[in-house]
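User: quick one, sequence for these tokens?
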């Protein structure tokens, strides 16, 4: 029996597309990947920057049309049996109408809330997306209430990515610099907890200051931006790694990565109990004082901390890798 041909249409998104494609191939699909925002020429990079950053009313229609036309061309050349779109909000209406009109089975997987994507900025029929999988419980509930096919599929740990060894004695944080995060990390530092934040917005390197315009330091140790492999190594090597969310209602990729690399995850949302047992597989806090106490115990009781690391790792590899997630996605077109 010939394996079904699947076209994966995805943003570059830190290279997660490659693991999604590999996981789909492990399920028996012939996978072709099209990265609709892949950097290419200087003109391509400028186009992608414009599509990402400008308000809808200011975006030149020709730029979106170019992205859309390229995706349609790949679709026609590939002649897939199934199409899985990841996010896809840079693709114009012509792409979605071509897909829906073809009769090919297709579905869309969201790793962000609709309010942060371009679908909310335009008059767009979401039914063209086919069945929708989202990491956001709020979006799924809203879509169901409006009569759409929507299913919650959490994000995952990329177990295929090589982990770069890193040495770090401080409790780590990897991510964007937001006021709430900065306040919490500063409180740890002021309480005498060794802590260090990594990312271009935290960094005091001259180039990072120039490109982010963050002239003021955070008041605690910081490091430069890390690629995913080094970030994985950092989280694994740190005494613990912090997972401090913004305004997401779903759990970020970091939730599964921090435990998946063998790190001890301290997260700010107790509802993580949907995926991990709090206290034995991850640690969760609800206040600044509780976070400080947890970090102090991590540093003073390494045997206790190690047991949590091992349990979180075991749970992640058993239930929260991309191999498990694509099995859930498969139900969207089965």
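Assistant:
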């Amino acid at each position: 029996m010939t394996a079904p041909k699947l076209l994966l249409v995805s943003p570059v998104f830190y290279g997660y597309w490659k693991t999604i494609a590999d996981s789909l191939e492990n399920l028996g699909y012939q996978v072709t990947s099209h990265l609709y925002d892949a950097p290419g020429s200087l003109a391509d990079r400028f186009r992608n920057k414009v599509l990402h950053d400008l308000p809808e009313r200011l975006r030149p229609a020709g730029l979106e049309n170019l992205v859309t036309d390229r995706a349609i061309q790949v679709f026609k050349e590939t002649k897939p049996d199934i199409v899985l779109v990841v996010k896809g909000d840079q693709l114009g209406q012509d792409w979605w109408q071509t897909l829906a009109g073809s009769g090919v089975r297709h579905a869309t997987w969201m790793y962000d809330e609709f309010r942060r994507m371009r679908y909310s900025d335009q008059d767009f029929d979401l039914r063209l997306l086919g069945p929708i999988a989202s990491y956001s419980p709020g979006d799924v509930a809203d879509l169901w209430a409006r009569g759409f096919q929507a299913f919650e599929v959490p994000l995952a740990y990329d177990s295929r990515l090589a982990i770069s060894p890193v040495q770090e004695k401080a409790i780590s944080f990897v991510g964007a610099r937001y006021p709430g995060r900065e306040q919490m990390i500063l409180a740890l530092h002021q309480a005498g907890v060794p802590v260090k934040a990594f990312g271009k917005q935290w960094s005091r390197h001259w180039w990072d200051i120039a490109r982010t315009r963050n002239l003021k330091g955070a008041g605690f140790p910081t490091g430069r931006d890390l690629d995913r492999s080094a970030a994985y190594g950092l989280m694994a090597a740190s005494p613990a790694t912090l997972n401090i969310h913004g305004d997401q209602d779903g759990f970020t990729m970091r939730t599964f990565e921090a435990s998946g690399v063998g790190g001890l995850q301290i997260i700010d949302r107790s509802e993580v109990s949907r995926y991990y047992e709090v206290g034995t597989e991850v640690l969760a806090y609800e206040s600044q004082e509780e976070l400080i106490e947890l970090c102090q115990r991590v540093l003073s009781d390494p045997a206790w901390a190690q047991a949590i690391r091992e349990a979180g790792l075991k749970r992640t590899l058993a239930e929260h890798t991309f191999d498990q997630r694509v099995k859930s996605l498969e139900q969207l077109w089965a």
